[in-house]
Fold this sequence. Notes:
Blueprint: H1 19-27, H2 29-32, E1 58-59, H3 72-81, H4 87-95, E2 99-102, E3 120-125, H5 131-149, E4 153-157, H6 163-170, E5 177-181, H7 195-207, H8 216-227, E6 240-243, E7 248-250, H9 258-264, E8 269-271, E9 274-276, H10 285-295, E10 316-318, E11 323-326, H11 327-331, H12 333-344, H13 347-350, H14 355-366, E12 372-374, E13 380-382, E14 385-387, H15 411-414, H16 416-423, H17 432-465
Parallel strand pairs: 3-4, 3-6, 4-5, 8-12
Antiparallel strand pairs: 1-2, 2-5, 6-11, 7-13, 8-11, 9-10, 13-14
Helix pairs in contact: 3-4, 8-14, 10-14, 10-17
The structure holds guanosine-5'-diphosphate and magnesium ion.
Amino acid sequence: MTLATINPLSAKFLKPANLIDWLKLYWSDSFTKDPYAKVKTDFTPPKSSDYTKLPSRYTRVEGWPVQFPENLAEYRANVIASNYTSKQQQWKDEVAPWVIHHRGSAEDKYLNSVDPREKAAIIVLVRDSEIEQLKHSIRMMEDRFNHKFNYPYIFFNEKPFTNNFIQTISKTTKSNTTFSLIPHEHWSVPDYIDMKKTKKEHSKLVELDVVYGGSMSYRHMCRYNSGFFYKHPLLQNLKYYWRLEPDIDYYCNLEYDPFKYMRENKKVYSFVIMLTELSRTIPTLWETTLNFSIKKNLTSPSLKIFSNENYDYNLCHFWSNFEIASLDWFRSSDYDDYFNYLDSTGKFFYERWGDAPVHSLAAGLLLNPDQIHFFNDIGYRHDIFTRWTALSEDSNEVSKCVVPQDKDRNFDIRGTECKGIFDNYKPYPWDPNDSKNALNTIYMNKLTRVNQHHSYLRWRNSAARN
Ligand SMILES: Nc1nc2c(ncn2[C@@H]2O[C@H](COP(=O)(O)OP(=O)(O)O)[C@@H](O)[C@H]2O)c(=O)[nH]1
Ligand SMILES: [Mg+2]
């Protein structure tokens, strides 16, 4: 980078208040790399991710490649450019140099006995910089639940994890931990995306102060969580996942295995908090979903959960930073068709579609209400949203929760808007005619609003003339 490409004297770069802030900005990712560049050619594995320097207890995953050429960047570029008959094999070969496994001591328990655990893992998409918040989340997970069950953790990142991250995080649990890079294809901009349009649309959202409105990495994250996480080669032998994020609290001891509960009760998707999405991030997600339902001729007993009385999206969604769900469902052709249909519109980039409304509307389209489970006994916090089981005054149950003192913070009490709809929902066979009616009603309402606006402008102009 030369000063010719970034002129520090231009008004744009004089924004930071002091020199330190300016230097931080100058060297930050967004200044050294163009976040809107379509093809990132700058993949240089950092020295801090030289896994050959890890102690011998850090190994390759069983059955995965173990030896690699010296020039790993070239190796990766070659794999990406090659024609493979199996995508799974290609992704596996591509990421293998940056996949490291740590066998936890808890595995000894299962050596000479039948392993009663489900085919499941706790999965975490995370950046190196979130190490402290992640340690907190793992501590929570272990203390409340996993010290009894020892489910493995799998960590994903679009950049190689550093040796420091791997060594620190593997020490937070006795369970197995695996650290992996994400395939390039899962975190990149498809050819058909118009980057000029993307940039323009982002600046509109920034003007409107929409959170993450101008962030490309946030869009990659949402698109990855919507349509790619379940395609990762490390998850192919698993049936269920529990999604964990940095900086969460779990409040209640969980004494049974929720993965087992999901399987035995034929549950496919589960949640703990349901809330409304920012409408400006998903202006056309509902219409696109209705068009998909028409195209696929779907009858969907759960979709009405998400419709308001005007047949528009009520913005309710399951908050996906907590999820326990079936990987087979995400891997089904129905789900994948839905994701591909959404993705073909480019609106993960042009708008800011979140994985939470996408997963929720997919559940609305494809699942029966009784396949969706609310885990009442899981107390949870992320960001400012919190919920826990409130025992009724005359209950004989013993509380297993350490809960915030301020009872009014419980989202079950103050955030009943969406959860109330879910609790009182009666299955309704929403079919393509409902979708067509909904689209018509939405267009008519829009037309009425435009007409009203034009009438108002005419009235205002004539009032100004008089
Ligand atoms: N590796 C990686 N993880 C990310 C990135 N952006 C977000 N995440 C992870 O994706 C999840 C959701 O991101 P977060 O910032 O919590 O989004 P929010 O909850 O919608 O505000 C968290 O687990 C983050 O650690 C990224 O650019 N790279
Ligand atoms: Mg989050």
